[in-house]
């Protein structure tokens, strides 16, 4: 089988993954060596995939996704056909250095994860690489740890208190401070569907630590009985079926807020029902708008010159983009995949990025943090409290990568501060009706896009036909792109009415036959 390091790293049926684990582990060690011993991460997880799958991703030294050139090297290392070929490649990529390469590893709770983690450690030993195994952690927790370790100038792993304790301290202290200073709502209740994944473990810890501030109720929180992982539950299930997860069907209390995280807790979506049981999804677009609305108020109150931008993908609902325009917030569209959004978000003092599917975070630039820590000496109380709130949010929200847990706390603190409930959040705008369809084609590689995947340059002539169809519908929009994770192309269409969106979708799909 041929591995390709995609947006989600390597992912496949667990028994076929050994070469990818060996290649990724070698890549992590070599990358660490190239960066003079900075710590690099290896996380073993297949996120929302079925329990029989597994996967692996390398976390770069800044705590973000692996750099593009190393993605390529990682792919080559995973696709060698013999041990001698692997050794030759390792020699080619080896940068002579006296530094000690260091790798941290973690895994989700899939039954195949411990064996794959052991395999990774065997390779690290063979490559004389120092490592620390964090066991069961969420993907964003390991990203956070890598960032923390490398911020420390000696690149040593802090042992007292250990990084995971610092993670909980950072999130919980910031939440408690925001709650005490700015929120008026008394102890909100939130039910969280944990997808029976690794996220159950830190969510238990958070609910314990924050019990005075939030009533967090966990469901689908059995990470040990593997048959339940992502099975009828989790963020991906709820988003794609637009319905509650198992154990909530017909049990949702009207107007109460619910959330689902995915199998490795790097994405989250919220939802609620109204009295007549109508199900409403509060997806990544809405998380982004809720957070940026509050951030904009705080920046205005702080009177500091801080730029704010929102990064979306082509899948963001047209109404959310229109809302941001009205709000006067600069909005950028990028290609699908966290690394593209993250990269753009870095261009702002405060960069908010979310994919509609719930992946995302808010980045505060170094320049922004400097301004917040060193504000003008003459300040009003309003300015001071806005600056303090921005600083607390920068501690609360994972700065390495999108994190379901910190996003959960950020949403609750903003809802509390704005005195907004689930219904008020939903009422910020009405989604344009839309449809997303997966179409099987003979060869998806012939679909080449431009303009952040919103237009096709190949097959030649197809985009003009799509444009022609779109022009026939009020508020019409449609695009076609090859999936990066499945052998199919995706067709997205939206229009003013449900009927029109469905009709437009069917006609664009018709062009692909
Ligand atoms: C991956 C990406 C996700 C993106 C999805 C698109 C990361 C961590 N994950 O799961 O952000 O939305 O791919 O899948 O970047 P698609 O290319 O099949 O539509
Ligand atoms: Zn995930």
UniProtKB/TrEMBL annotation:
The UniProt catalytic activity note for this protein reads: N-acetyl-alpha-D-glucosamine 1-phosphate = N-acetyl-D-glucosamine 6-phosphate
What residues does substrate bind to? 355-357, 481-485, 490
Q: Where is the active site?
A: 47 (phosphoserine intermediate)
Tell me where in this chain the Alpha-D-phosphohexomutase alpha/beta/alpha domain is found.
Answer: 38-78
- Its name, as the record gives it, is Phosphoacetylglucosamine mutase
Domain Alpha-D-phosphohexomutase C-terminal: residue ranges: 436-509
Xref: CDD domains: PGM3
Question: What is the superkingdom listed in this entry's lineage?
Answer: Eukaryota
Q: Where in the cell is it found?
A: Nucleus
């Amino acid at each position: 089988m041929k591995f390709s390091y995609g947006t989600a790293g390597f992912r496949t049926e667990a028994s076929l993954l050994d070469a990818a684990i060996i290649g990724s582990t070698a890549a992590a060690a070599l990358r660490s060596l190239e960066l003079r011993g900075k710590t690099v991460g290896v996380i073993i997880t297949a996120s929302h995939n079925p329990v029989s799958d597994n996967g692996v991703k390398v976390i770069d030294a800044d705590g973000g996704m692996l750099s593009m050139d190393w993605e390529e090297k990682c792919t080559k290392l995973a696709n060698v056909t013999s041990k001698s070929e692997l050794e030759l490649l390792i020699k080619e990529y080896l940068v002579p250095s006296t530094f000690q390469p260091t790798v941290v590893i973690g895994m989700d709770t899939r039954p195949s994860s411990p064996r794959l983690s052991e395999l990774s450690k065997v390779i690290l030993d063979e490559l004389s690489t120092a490592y620390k195994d964090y066991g069961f952690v969420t993907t964003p927790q390991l990203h956070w740890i890598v960032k923390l370790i490398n911020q420390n100038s000696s690149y040593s792993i802090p042992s007292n208190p250990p990084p995971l304790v610092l993670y909980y301290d950072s999130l919980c202290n910031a939440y408690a401070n925001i709650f005490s200073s700015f929120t008026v709502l008394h102890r909100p209740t939130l039910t969280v569907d944990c997808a029976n994944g690794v996220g159950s473990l830190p969510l238990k810890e958070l609910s314990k630590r924050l019990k005075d501030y939030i009533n967090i109720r966990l469901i689908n929180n059995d990470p040990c009985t593997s048959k339940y992982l992502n099975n009828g539950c989790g963020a991906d299930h709820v988003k794609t079926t637009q319905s509650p997860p198992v154990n909530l069907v017909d049990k949702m209390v009207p107007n109460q807020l619910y959330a689902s995280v995915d199998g490795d807790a790097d994405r989250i979506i919220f939802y609620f029902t109204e009295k007549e049981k109508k199900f409403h999804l509060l997806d990544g677009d809405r998380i982004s708008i809720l957070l940026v609305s509050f951030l904009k108020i705080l920046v205005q109150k702080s009177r500091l010159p801080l730029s704010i931008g929102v990064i979306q993908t082509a899948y963001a609902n047209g109404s959310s983009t229109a809302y941001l325009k009205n709000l006067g917030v600069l909005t950028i569209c990028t290609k699908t995949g966290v690394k593209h959004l993250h990269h753009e978000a870095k261009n702002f003092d405060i960069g908010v990025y979310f994919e509609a599917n719930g992946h995302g975070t808010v980045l505060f630039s170094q320049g922004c943090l400097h301004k917040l820590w060193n504000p003008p000496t003459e300040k009003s109380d309003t300015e001071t409290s806005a600056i303090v709130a921005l600083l607390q949010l920068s501690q609360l929200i994972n700065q390495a990568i999108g994190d379901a847990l910190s996003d959960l706390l950020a949403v609750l603190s903003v809802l509390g501060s704005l005195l907004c409930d689930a219904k008020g959040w939903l009422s910020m705008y009405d989604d344009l009706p839309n449809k997303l369809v997966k179409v099987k084609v003979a060869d998806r590689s012939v679909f080449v896009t431009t303009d952040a995947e919103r237009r096709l340059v190949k097959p030649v002539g197809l985009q003009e036909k799509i444009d022609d169809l779109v022009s026939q519908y009020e508020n019409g929009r449609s695009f076609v792109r090859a999936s990066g994770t499945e052998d199919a192309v995706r067709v997205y269409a939206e229009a003013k009415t449900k009927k029109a969106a469905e009709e437009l979708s069917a006609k664009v799909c018709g062009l692909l036959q």
